[in-house]
Design brief:
Elements: E1 2-4, H1 10-25, H2 37-45, H3 47-50, E2 75-76, E3 86-92, H4 100-115, E4 144-151, H5 164-178, E5 186-192, E6 206-210, E7 215-219, H6 232-248, E8 263-264, E9 285-287, E10 295-297, E11 300-302, E12 307-309, E13 314-317, E14 324-327, H7 329-337, E15 366-371, E16 374-379
Parallel strand pairs: 3-4, 3-5, 5-7
Antiparallel strand pairs: 1-16, 2-8, 6-7, 9-10, 11-12, 13-14, 15-16
Length: 383
């Protein structure tokens, strides 16, 4: 590992290079401190769950091991992930324009998907990839809100069987109306208005599907299912659950006997459990992103820690227009030693990325992170 300078701050960052190299050479580098007291409080909030080791709850733990289904539970099944997810929100029914509770849900969901990018929560997805020989084939921490639409002209009806086809039809209606495209990175999330019997199974509050072209999901907002709540935090938890699963197992379907070709457990005779399924029994938690509003999210499985988690890396303030960036691993270790965002490198200006011309793999990557006054480079081969 070493620091590389931008031309405009050559003298400063050249000095930092020597400091960074000295730090990397030193043994027993301590883990970085948490970024803010607020994040510390958030971690403390999970302490009771952490005492349970946040282990996944499997219907039959003996399938892969005692207590934990597999180690690590999530495995790639030869397919792909959404490398740069784009989420489209579809609010189905005229009540989204008149019902105060639904209008509040709408605003909360919009804020969530408009601000997930750059955060340590969304960064959990960055460890999941498509091709182990391509270090850039992972889920990048740059999810976008591609658009939102209230379909006030077509109140929900559930006339198609199976029930998910009604949500596919609505997603197709939205793309036709709004000019959106069902690309491999696109997700279409459908939220039916209050009072709709979604005809889902008794314990489902949401589900994601794939029909060969559309990656789409449905999230319950109606309270018609006794297991689901139409509160902002509950709906948000379900929405982030389905988003994370669609990003890491995009051709998976809740109607299939197993997952798609993305990331899920290796159980073969029952439906595979995906990144949020393994943590659903913990019923979500509050997430406090830097420069953002508190939001309810589903805990996600972190293969790196072999447990359910709310963050991967450390969030820092970022210069506008970004709200935050996350720095992780060896690059964060060096950044903290150099004073982090209050040091000479200043605030981060990018997420971790693959430098031009890099030929690393997932297991042996080459990575860089840019900062206001410099850059830190890391190579698994050379440090």
């Amino acid at each position: 590992m070493h620091a590389r300078s931008f031309p405009r701050v050559t003298r400063i960052v050249t000095l930092l290079s020597l400091v960074a190299l000295a730090l990397v050479a030193s043994a027993n580098v301590a883990p970085p401190a948490l970024a803010t007291p607020r994040v510390q409080a958030q971690k403390a909030q999970l302490s009771a769950k952490a005492a349970q080791n946040l282990a996944p709850l499997s219907e039959d733990p003996a399938k892969c091991g005692v207590g934990i289904p597999c180690t690590p539970p999530l495995l790639l099944h030869g397919g792909s992930v959404q490398q740069h997810p784009v989420v489209y929100l579809i609010f189905w029914g005229s009540k989204w324009n008149t019902d105060s509770n639904l209008m509040s849900l709408h605003a909360n969901l919009r804020d969530t998907f408009a601000t997930l990018a750059g955060g340590a929560y969304n960064n959990i997805l960055s460890q999941y990839y498509s091709d182990p020989n391509n270090q850039d084939s992972y889920v990048h921490n740059d999810v976008q809100l591609g658009g939102e639409w209230i379909d006030a002209q077509d109140n929900p009806t559930m006339s198609l069987v199976p029930f998910n086809l009604n949500f596919l039809s609505e997603a197709q209606r939205a793309t036709s109306s709004q000019g959106w495209q069902p690309t491999p990175d696109a997700q279409f999330m459908v939220f039916p208005q209050t009072g709709v019997d979604t005809q889902a199974v008794a314990d489902e509050c949401g589900a994601h599907f794939f029909n060969g072209t559309y990656i789409y999901s449905w999230v319950d907002t109606t309270s018609s299912n006794s297991q689901c709540l139409a509160t902002s935090s509950a709906v948000n938890e379900t929405a982030t659950h389905e988003y994370a699963e669609a990003a890491t197992d995009p051709d998976g379907s809740d109607l299939a006997l197993a997952g798609g070709t993305g990331w899920y457990t290796k159980e073969v005779d029952t439906p595979g459990q995906e990144i949020a399924d393994l943590c659903a029994a913990y019923n979500g938690t509050a997430y406090f992103p830097k420069n953002g509003l508190e939001m309810g999210v589903e805990l996600l499985w972190n293969n790196a820690n072999n447990g359910c988690d709310i963050a991967l890396g450390t969030e820092y303030d970022a210069p506008p227009p970004a709200l935050r960036h996350t720095v992780k691993g060896a690059i964060n270790d060096a950044y903290v030693r150099l004073g982090a965002d209050s040091g000479l490198l200043g605030e981060p200006t990018t997420e971790e990325y693959s430098p031009p011309g890099a030929h690393g793999t997932i297991a042996s990557p080459q990575r860089e992170s840019d900062f206001q006054f410099g850059r830190i480079y890391y190579s698994a081969a050379s440090g």
